[in-house]
Amino acid sequence: MKTKWLPALIMLLAGAINCVLAFAKRLSPLAFTVRLLLVLIIFYVLGTLVQWIVDANFKEMEEQPGEEEGTPGEGDADAELEEGDAQSETETEEELENIDAGDA
After folding, report:
1. What DSSP state is assigned to residue 27?
2. What is the pTM of this model?
């Protein structure tokens, strides 16, 4: 999953909310600028952490289906059954031949 945009999106949303609140409170330009800068930096760092967590979780989710395919289970069990069936058929044929040889 592409998450490169996630930190910027979180940062910009926080900045937009900060702008609305600053205009509602009628902050001075200096206070507004300082708060906006702090909000953008803090939420960029938080967005980067969120991106890291999301990437790590999706990486684990993508690896799980691949691991299930390689585990002994469906595919290997079918192969073992086929080998077992072939072996039991051979043994059965040999037993029949022995029985026929014993009757003659």
Report:
1. -
2. 0.56
